Amino acid sequence: MNTTTTMITNPILTGFHPDPSICRAGEDYYIATSTFEWFPGVRIHHSKDLVHWRALPSPLTRKSQLNMEGNINSGGVWAPCLSYDRGVFYLIYTDVKSRIGAFKDTHNYLVTATNIEGPWSEPIYLNSSGFDPSLFHDEDGRKWLVNMIWDHRKGKNRFAGIVLQEYSVQEQKLVGTAVNIFKGTELGLTEAPHLYKHNGYYYLVTAEGGTGYEHAVTVARSRTLQGTYEVDPNNPILTSNGRTDLPLQKAGHGSLVETHTGEWYIAHLVGRPVQEKHCILGRETALQRCTWSEDGWLRLASGDRYPELQVSAPNIKLHPFEPTAEMDHFDQAELCNDWNTLRIPPDATWITLKERPDYLRLYGMESMSSTHRQSMLARRLDAFECEAETCLEFEPDHPQQMAGLILYYDTQDYLYLRVTYQEEKGLCIGILQSKCGVYDELVEDVPLQSGSRIRLKAVIQHDRACFYYAINDDSSWIQVGEWTDITHLCDESPEYIRFTGTYIGLCVQDLGGTRRHADFDYFRYSTS
Predict the structure, then answer these.
(1) Considering Cα of 297, then 302, then 305, then 310, what sign does the dihedral take?
(2) DSSP state of 13
(3) Residue 496 DSSP label
(4) Distance CA 51, CA 184 (A)
């Protein structure tokens, strides 16, 4: 069958999948998205039809490629660019070390591979002049890097334009002079540049308006690579700004692809708020079908500039993938693609599937406030209604030792059902919360029977969550505390802009440094 009557349902990548960069290699389609402080770096999804998508192994799996230990919240990998040319995949990414205040330390790198699943090369350093780097492959074989340039000076436009510089494959470095080819439009905050060649024009696609509710995609074009670039008179071509009724907000940061059937689509980020403007799932990825106007400008096929939940799929045979299993029994040799760690790669010094077969063992490290070495394994929250469950074996003997099930945004905001030890109660369970950096203990700790298998469960319903526990495998669930508001687990912090999304997972802390471990029998994640 073909897909002439099939629809693409947005978002195509739910949960924290921002800043999409889409490319085609033959009849295969790939999207790379930002991962920020989560490891491994850069999330890649694959599709054969633009309707069905599956996660592939991430490309940045080694500390030599990405060393984020100590990176700030919402630092790390920003806005990757994935491209394909003459049998080689090119991945450009930024490792952000600082982002608050006047200065931004943004180091840009390139890795390559001949197979999308790796192995990927060691990184080539490019520059640090700004962020959102993108590689353009011109028809003559020359390659060009574009990135926004950051100006720290007082009274200047911090988003100082888009710079272009040639990249030499032979010398493995940037060569020549960087040229500012586009200063942006009146929307401002010009970033996320991507260059395309179509019908004799170079098209520069950028994001403007900031990555919040005024986000937008703008387009400019030129007959020559270095410009002058003419701004689309109908800009922005895509936005949600001014339409609070739309289910897809924050539309912006676009990337184009032409299918092997000659159809055009733009991948872009969106947000789906709950309770006014709280996007607990983070920024997600959507697709819109595009056309070219008679005078050569890019337009949404819908005829307006607003993102749609349903768009027509390309005329390509459907190719679904096997769904991801709800249950992980930790009985495989390697962790599955859905799992992530904070800032550091998983290694046998703190995480292992081998020491106790069919169990995940985590050795306790630093606190939930640490930007260095947390012992946490988590997956994206990708649905507004879902459940997560695990079974824990843990024998703490000090209050500094904790283990359990956590809903985590960053070091400032989390909700944690944890098992610990208290001098007057022994083994016990309770809920810890950090809300905008303010620590709290939401319930009085409940004593538990030592030596038990402790089952833990979290139920999420849009803007709230509730925790449960059970002793051993045959007992019923007992609610811990009340339903708790989780809207603070979102991008919209009252203190500063941030960019990730909520994760749910397993963690262990040993603040005394004795490395007390916990064993997890399974992890189940299901959505409604």
Answers:
(1) negative
(2) B
(3) S
(4) 33
Decide if 297 contacts 234 (C-beta within 8 A): yes
CA pair distance 381, 503, nearest whole angstrom: 5
Q: Do domains 10-312 and 327-527 have the same CATH topology?
A: no
Q: Which residues of 176-202 are buried (b: 16+ CB within 10 A; e: fewer)?
A: eebeebbebbebebbbbbbbbeeeebb
Q: Which CATH code for domain 327-527? A: 2.60.120.200
pLDDT tens sequence across 471-527? 988 789 999 999 999 999 999 887 778 999 999 999 999 999 999 999 999 999 999
**Is residue 191 flagged as an active site residue?**
yes
Catalytic site residue from 191, 214, 308, 510: 191
How many CA within 13 A on the CB side of residue 147? 28
Is 19 in the active site?
yes
Identify the pLDDT of residue 5.
55
Question: Other CB atoms closer than 10 Å to residue 418's CB: what's the count?
Answer: 26
Structural domain boundaries in the chain: 10-312, 327-527
The answer to pTM > 0.70 is yes
Contact predicate 169/145, CB 8 Å: no
Cis omega (within 30 of 0) for bond into 40 = yes
Q: Rounded to a whole number, what is the largest CA-CA distance in the chain?
A: 77
Q: Are the CB atoms for 117 and 97 separated by under 8 Å? A: no
Give the domain 10-312 fold.
Tachylectin-2; Chain A (2.115.10)
Q: Concatenated DSSP letters for 399-457?
A: TTEEEEEEEEEETTEEEEEEEEEETTTEEEEEEEEEETTEEEE-SPPEE--TT--EEEE
Nearest to 187 by CA among 140, 237, 249, 244: 237
